Structures are given as structure tokens and as C-alpha cells.
Amino acid sequence: MDTRHKILIVDNDKNILAAFRIFLIGEGYRPLVCSNAEDALRMIDRYRIDLVISEIHINGHIESGLLFLTNLRHKLPHLPVIIVNNQIDGAVERRLKSLGINGVLTKPIELRVIKRTIKSVLRLRKSRYSKNKILDQ
Fold first, then answer.
1. CB 70 within 8 A of CB 27
2. Could you report the per-residue pLDDT of 33-77, keeping only the tens digit for each?
3. Is 134 a member of any domain?
4. Are strands 51-55 and 30-34 parallel, antiparallel or unpaired?
5. What are the percentages of helix, strand and coil residues in the chain, rounded to 5?
6. Which alpha helices (DSSP H) does 7-61 contain, by range?
7. What interhelical angle do 62-75 and 90-98 show, nearest 10?
8. Residue 3 confidence (pLDDT)
9. Half-sphere exposure for 27 (CA within 13 Å, toward CB)
10. Residue 86 falls within a domain, yes or no?
């Protein structure tokens, strides 16, 4: 039985997916990658995912990303989610908080920041399911 944490990466950019995949394997995680919301929801149904790291502009639109996160929250309200994006305005950040997103990282991201955030979110999940807590950056 594979006991490594399964982390789902959702991003439109295949280079970012490949980079995350390599990084996460090196850190001892089991990465699963997909480039759109529909595939991401199918993977969540198929596998026991421990964490989702997602771009907010899924399918090229911020509303698609927010719809994906809303659907994800209805399906699995306690699944940890980290958002990665170039820039997020105040209205979108408030919406993410209302969806209980566990972290928001702004690109470009240093590997040590990604590593620390992943460990923190997974540790929080292990200790108990978080309730709408946004991690300090």
C-alpha cells in the first residue's frame, strides 16, 4: 500500500505541471496532475487526495476556477486546498476565504515556501480538519 500523500496539481500550463510533479516526487509525495477542472473532479472521485494545489485561472478563466473550488467544497468540504496564482485581487481573495482555502501563494514562488506551506497544510489536516482557516504567508 502506498502511504505517500497524494497531491493533485491543477494548472493549464504543462510546464508548471511537470515542474510540480518533479518537485513533489523529490519531496516524497505522490503527485497527480491535470490541466482542467473536469479532470480534476474526476481524479478527486477516483483517488483519495490529501491536498489540492490549483491555479485559480482554470480553463483560462477565474470564474471557472472559482466554480471548480465551489464544486470541490460541496463534494469534500475538508479537503485542503492551496491556490497558486500570479495576482489575486481583494474580491477574489475574500471569495477564496469564504470557500475555506487553506493557502494562497503568489507566483513566482520559492521552493522553500511551497515546501513549508504543503507541510503546514498537511500537518493541520492530520491534527484535525481545518474550518475555513487561511494560513499566514
1. no
2. 999 999 999 999 999 999 999 999 887 788 888 999 999 999 999
3. no
4. unpaired
5. 50, 20, 35
6. 14-26, 37-46
7. 10
8. 72
9. 20
10. yes
Full strand arrangement of the beta sheet holding 103-106: 30-34, 6-10, 51-55, 81-85, 103-106
Which grid coordinates are listed for 95?
471569495
Residues linked to residue 6 through DSSP beta bridges, in sequence order: 30
Is 23 contained in some domain? yes
In a domain? residue 20 = yes
Tracing cell 471557472 back to the chain, one arrives at: 64
Structural domain count of the chain: 1
User: Which cell is 121 given?
Assistant: 497544510
The CATH number given to whatever domain includes residue 31 is: 3.40.50.2300
Q: Is the peptide bond before 108 cis (omega within 30 degrees of 0)?
A: yes
- Domain with 99, as residue range(s), is 6-127
The pTM for the full model equals 0.87
Give 2's pLDDT tier (boundaries 50, 70, 90).
low
